[in-house]
Amino acid sequence: MQKIVHVRPLDDAIGHEESHDCPCGPTGQGVHNSATKKMVGVIFHHHGLQPCHEWEASDLA
């Protein structure tokens, strides 16, 4: 089972959806098990439209 984590700014000019289709165009980065090289998850890092100071990470199964 792969985990999906979204790292989103909380104090941005817009609200960010927990989706890879968020209007900010989040970038996905694969997370691999170093022993087996198997992908175990994806981290989507959302892009702030202004400098942000508060961020939240939420994981979805």
Class by alpha and beta content: mainly beta
Total count of strands: 4
Q: Overall 3D geometry?
A: elongated
Per DSSP, the total helix count is: 0
Helix-residue proportion:
under 10%
How large, in whole angstroms, is the Cα Rg? Answer: 13 Å
- Uncertain runs: none
Q: Order of strands side by side in the largest beta sheet? A: 2-3-1-4
Q: Specify the biggest β-sheet.
A: 4 strands, mixed
How many discrete domains? 1
Assembly classification: single chain
What pattern of helices and strands is seen along the backbone?
EEEE
Q: Could you give the distance between the termini?
A: 8 Å
Mean pLDDT: 92
Q: What fraction of residues sit in β-strands?
A: 35-45%
Task: Describe the model.
The protein has 61 residues and is mainly beta. It has one domain (1-60). Helices cover 0% and strands 43% of the residues. A hairpin with a 6-residue loop joins strand 2 and strand 3. The model has no long low-confidence stretch (mean pLDDT 92).
Structure summary:
This protein has 61 residues and is mostly beta strands. The chain is built from no helices and four strands. The protein has one domain (1-60).
Topology diagram in text:
Blueprint: E1 3-9, E2 27-32, E3 39-45, E4 55-60
Parallel strand pairs: 1-3
Antiparallel strand pairs: 1-4, 2-3
Structural descriptors:
four-stranded mixed sheet, 61 residues, elongated, 43% strand, mainly beta
